[in-house]
Amino acid sequence: MEHTWQLQEAKNKFSKLVEKAQYEGPQFVTKHGKESVVVLSVEEYKKIVKPKSNLFQFIQTSPLSKTLINIERDKSLGRDIEL
Q1: How many helices (H) and strands (E) does the chain have?
Q2: Which carries the bigger pLDDT value, residue 2 or residue 78?
Q3: How high is the mean pLDDT of the chain?
Q4: What is the distance in angstroms between the CA of the first residue and the CA of the last residue of the chain?
């Protein structure tokens, strides 16, 4: 269920807005009649920003995971430079 608040009402009843975001879901705040911001609970926010996999899983599922890469270090001394 979508909940929409006018900015002035959201400012006046901020504690209630936060409570509703925690227990009833995202709360939309409008400014001049247009949706402006969404207030989310921390749990909802973490669901959105949490990576779907860790780096190891990402590399394993990459299309390049079967590519042979030469990881041997070049043992040459490099080039001489004049300082």
Answers
A1: 4, 3
A2: 78
A3: 89
A4: 70
